[in-house]
Design brief:
heterodimer, A: 253 residues, alpha/beta, Rossmann fold, ABC transporter ATPase like fold, 2 domains, 6-stranded mixed sheet, 4-stranded antiparallel sheet, 9 helices, B: 220 residues, mainly alpha, MetI-like fold
Chain lengths: 253, 220
């Protein structure tokens, strides 16, 4: 996965500024940084929720945001986006479960309608994943009846049911009560072991980033200000802004 | 005597028969309004500017001109272009199309109330636009707007007497005929009013019941 000179603006505000980022297959990258530094935008562009203004994103060697036409690259149309999006799954800060569907149906809707699985196949796959995240007894519940941590684990199972190669986690514990954070992080930990996934996570859980990630990227003002293995970033950050940010965050606990 | 009971009981069966036509026109018109209204609402949200613009223009045009004129137009003017419809069909069609424009606004409000996260989750799961509408957006958008749609059902029902203008033998037209035959209007017209009152009250109660049912489903 490669970002090449990616720029994103909202009006006058430049959210991402000529960003270059390479992520190896099955690498686990944690993205940290102050709010407004463009962290979430990186994930949203990968998920094709935001169009990009300049640059190209490649996934699996294929351009994600653009398609080849007459030897050049032109901006991708909806049909092309649908064909490349299948490799990527995303878990959101606010879960975004479908409230009118049961837990099981949340996890079978896309496999049936997009991958063309039969209902039985899709349910088998969904049950397996829901059991894996510890929700095998909640199949028939509606999301309103679940705690935040349970909702987020359903969202993880729902994304995985599409068998993506890349999983994006966008501040997945930020909307949770503190005592529920652990169960969601445990679910993500387990996925890291069980599946061959490339993972990108925007997180404020520094302890988790340190333990789980292969690499940590510190975003500041739309650029990668510093990146490296977690020990290096957390124990001996080289740049001043990184040090300031980390000491502020760690002080807050 | 001011009110003639014998006459009233004489005309009652005739009016009861005519009420069937009124109810048929109401239901057929409303079903058309519900379906066409949804089509208008979705077309107005299209990414294609031409589709959005054309739909908006058509909806505004229909909403801003009187229903009676539209009824006349479909019944008397379309035959000039070779489209001949019988009175009931023309009237029902006009009712349905007119109310479809109101319903489309209601649907639009319901659809716009769906949080952006639902659309984003649908995109992240790679659902097609059709599946997104059918399985994710519409099932969540409709229940909250059922009361508003129900109000239009009652409103449409109360406008069916307009069909008497093109001689559809619904309640009003039948009452007018009875009145002119017997030179007494008070009984048939009053009975028609009572009929509309009773059915409107029943419909309102049904809407309130549906509203309660739907709100409990939402809290499941």
């Amino acid at each position: 996965m490669r970002f090449s000179g990616v720029t994103k603006r909202y009006g006058d505000l430049t959210v991402l500024d000529n960003l270059d980022l390479d992520v190896a297959p099955q690498e686990k990258v944690a993205i940290i940084g102050p709010s407004g530094s463009g962290k979430t935008t990186v994930l949203r562009m990968l998920m094709t929720l935001e169009p990009i203004d300049e640059g190209v994103i490649y996934v699996d060697g294929k351009p994600l945001t653009h398609m080849e036409s007459n030897g050049g690259l032109v901006r991708a149309n909806e049909k092309y986006l649908r064909s490349v999006r299948g490799n990527i799954g995303m878990v959101f800060q606010h879960f975004n479960l479908f409230p009118h569907m049961t837990v099981l149906r949340n996890c079978t809707e896309a496999p049936i309608n997009v991958l063309g699985l039969s209902k039985a196949e899709a349910e088998e796959r969904a049950v397996e994943l829901l059991e894996l995240v510890g929700l095998g007894d909640k199949l028939g519940e509606y999301p309103q009846r679940l705690s935040g941590g349970q909702k987020q684990r359903v969202a993880i199972a729902r994304a995985l049911a599409m068998r993506p190669k890349v999983m994006l986690f966008d501040e997945v514990t930020s909307a949770l009560d503190p005592e529920l954070v652990g169960e969601v992080l445990n679910a993500i930990r387990m996925l890291g072991k069980q599946f061959q996934l490339t993972m990108l996570m925007v997180t404020h859980q520094m302890g988790f980033a340190k333990e789980f990630a292969d690499r940590v990227c510190f975003f500041y003002e739309g650029k990668i200000h510093e990146d490296g293995p977690p020990e290096e970033i957390f124990n001996s950050p080289k740049r001043e802004r990184t040090q300031q940010f980390l000491s502020a965050v760690l002080e807050a606990g | 005597m001011f009110w003639d009971w014998d006459y009233a009981f004489d005309v009652l069966p005739v009016l009861a028969k005519a009420s069937i036509v009124t109810i048929q026109a109401t239901l057929a018109g409303f079903i058309l309004a519900l379906v066409l209204g949804l089509v208008f609402a979705i077309m107005r949200m299209s990414r294609n500017r031409a589709v959005t613009g054309a739909t908006t223009a058509v909806v505004e045009f229909i909403r801003s001109t009187p229903l009676l004129i539209q009824i006349f137009f479909i019944y008397f003017v379309l035959p000039e272009f070779g489209i001949v419809l019988d009175a009931f069909l023309a009237g029902t069609l006009a009712l349905g199309i007119h109310y479809a424009t109101y319903c489309s606004e209601v649907y639009r409000a319901g659809i716009e109330a769906i949080p952006r996260g639902q659309w984003e989750a649908a995109t992240a799961l790679n659902l097609s636009p059709a599946t997104t509408f059918k399985d994710i957006i519409i099932p969540q958008a409709i229940p909250p707007v059922v009361p508003a749609l129900g109000n239009y059902l009652v409103a449409l029902f109360k406008e069916t007497p307009l069909l008497s203008a093109i001689a559809v033998l619904e309640l009003m037209q039948t009452a007018k005929i009875l009145g002119s035959q017997n030179f007494r209007y008070i009984e048939p017209i009053t009975l028609v009013g009572v009929f509309f009152l009773i059915f409107s009250l029943i419909a309102s109660a049904a809407i309130r019941y549906a509203e309660r049912r739907l709100s409990t489903i939402g809290k499941r």
